[in-house]
Specification:
Layout (H helix, E strand, L loop, with lengths): L8 E7 L4 E7 L2 E8 L4 H11 L3 E6 L5 H10 L4 E3 L9 E2 L9 H13 L5 E6 L2 E8 L3 E9 L1 H10 L20 H28 L3 E5 L3 H8 L6 E2 L3 H12 L3
Parallel strand pairs: 1-4, 4-5, 6-9, 7-10, 10-11
Antiparallel strand pairs: 1-2, 2-3, 7-8, 8-9
Helix pairs in contact: 1-2, 3-7, 4-5, 5-6
Length: 252
């Protein structure tokens, strides 16, 4: 089903593990982006009221904040789609436990279908957790892998050992670290980049993936590490585009 070509203001709301992200679309193109470290309804709605969206969609990686959803629904005069297990989707779900499949992974898959129709792609969402999923050309979500994100890896090394410091990704990352700090940083960041690169190689061989898509908070960092070896598309608004596509598909 084709998207409606309507110049309206659409609000995509992505409630993740660490941040809540708002993306405002004018027609089919992203116009404004807002990120919030907390789900303060007052702070969020000062932005929403200024943007004046006509409609929107909401997706949460975990527990849904019912107060936030109801406030959004009121602000949009009821024209809000809350992504759920019963939402009609523009792709099939080939997953043995669909009731446990994260709604964020579904929205990202829909975004990939919208941007790359007819292709089999690997979608990597690099956030608190990292998902590496296959979306085939039929189109269908075929499953994938879940692993710890960069911040979790740094924290685990610090908390589960007696001597390793807590670091972050800012700083040198040589191929072979010449200090404890550079060894940890290279192990975490370059190690995850290697994992993504090898997973894509396997997906390409097994499923015929032709494209690697990176999104999420650490996507830019990982893209810089990966692009020296294989081409990777960095699409920061993939989730928002997926929510817009699902909204239009449901003709709300």
């Amino acid at each position: 089903m084709a998207d409606k070509e309507i110049k309206r203001r659409f609000l995509a709301v992505d409630q993740g593990n660490s941040l809540l992200k708002l993306t405002l679309f004018e027609g089919d193109e992203p116009w404004e982006v807002g990120r919030f470290s907390s789900s303060s309804i007052e702070e969020i709605f000062s932005v929403v009221e200024g943007w004046k969206p006509d409609c929107g969609a909401f997706c949460s990686v975990g527990r849904i904040d019912s107060r936030l959803v109801e406030s959004l629904r009121l602000a949009l005069d009821g024209r809000l789609l809350v992504l759920s297990r019963s939402t009609k989707l523009p792709l099939a779900i080939d997953y043995s436990t669909p009731s446990t499949l994260g709604l964020d992974r579904i929205a990202l898959a829909a975004g990939a279908v919208r941007l790359y129709p007819g292709e089999t792609v690997a979608v990597v969402d690099a956030g608190t957790a990292v998902t590496l999923d296959v979306v085939d050309s039929s189109p269908a979500f075929r499953g994938g892998r879940i692993t710890a994100g960069i911040r979790l890896r740094f924290e685990a090394l610090n908390r589960r050992t007696s001597a390793l410091p807590l670091l972050d990704a800012d700083g040198p990352m040589p191929m072979a670290g010449d200090s404890t700090a550079t060894a940890i940083r290279s192990g975490v960041v370059l190690g995850l980049a290697d994992e993504i690169t090898e997973t894509f190689r396997q997906y390409k061989e097994k499923f015929g993936c032709t494209r690697l898509i990176l999104t999420g908070g650490d996507a830019a960092l990982l893209s810089a590490c990966i692009n020296s070896r294989i081409p990777a598309d960095h699409v920061p608004d993939l989730m928002a585009r997926g929510l817009l596509y699902i909204y239009n598909y449901n003709e709300i």
